[in-house]
Amino acid sequence: MNKYMQIADELSKQNLLTNNGGPFGAVVVKDGVVVGTGNNHVLRNNDPTAHGEIMAIRNACKELNTYDLSGCELYTSCYPCPMCLSATIWANIKTIYYGNTQLDAADIGFRDDFIYNYIDDICENEDHKENNDVLKLIPMDREETIKTFKEFKEKEDKTIY
Question: What amino acid positions are annotated as catalytic residues?
Fold first, then answer.
């Protein structure tokens, strides 16, 4: 077994004992060095974003003192959910190694498929009519909120990430 995947799997197994969250673990590696680890803490933290991958990314960013994890790889015990895939992309991680599949996650009760379907529906529908059974997206007060965006656009000392 790959040594980094083994760490991710061990982190996943910890939750079988602690019940901190689902059986998910992840490791961020840069240049052959583990810079962040995490396992699912959704239940422990009462935080639906505390997935193993997110926790590992947060820890790696803290360890490296950066929001940009370019050059890092993510090892995770399961194919990442849409939130974790997005976080990985935002972190500039270009490679994910995963153990279990989406179907394996579904088989033990995790419901990522409806989120993927929701995203597919939005992307395929030109007028962007959302599935209101999953989520309502309602535009509001753009004429006011856009003012801050315009101010940011004009800032000379801004950082784009």
Answer: 53
